[in-house]
Design a protein that fits this description.
7 helices; 2 domains; Stationary-phase Survival Protein Sure Homolog, Chain: A; alpha/beta
Amino acid sequence: MNRPRVLLTNDDGIESPGLHALADALSPLAEVTTVAPATNRSGVGRERSNAVSIVDHDRGTAIEGTPADCVAYALRGLSTEFELVVSGCNVGPNVGSYLLGRSGTVGAAVEAAFLGVPAIAVSGYHHANFFPPEGSPFEVPADATAFLAERALDGELLAGADYLNVNAPIEERGPMRVTEPIGDYDTAVERSGEELALRDTFWATAETNGSLPDLADCADLYPIGSDRRAIAEGEVSVSPLSVPQSVAESEELSGLVGSF
């Protein structure tokens, strides 16, 4: 009996320990093919390149390009048909609807979904330090990924969604919660002479002067069911998402175009 096939990628680069942790966790479940950026390409969203170079690597195939490039190459440039794409494990959380558009980890999952293959984007966070310190283990995110991937490959877990955005703590295993990306976002613009400083303020603890918050201090700032609330409480946040842009009903626009 043929084993299912999983494509593994990330945005932190093919040397990332988070990627290696997911490869080890997924290997008992499926044939895992790794195609990942040769270097760190965090924060590029779903950016695509016109041409990329391929580099052989003992962990798989390294691409001199973005996470979305890796997915496009693997799904359309290889002869293998994949049942699932897994992107991660990212070093640091990817929560909030605005931030998801910037994330290369999520961008790879979105690219896969547009190309017709369901996906799971996975990020690991540290409850106190926000970003996992160097040398942190990724067992909890890897266990959560294997738990979800096994059910996605065996059944209808992703029947109602194109991809899952998962954020898991690295310190200890918390409960798993279905969440919705929260829409809070703002930015501060500060001018110094001819230079402009642009600072995101999408965490409600903006009064920390730009420093990243201790997540445990943020729980009461966000509604239950939001992805930010889930990670503030040390949970595994799972957001089921779809790729097409939503169409907003507008009677005003309908009436306006009729008069053009």
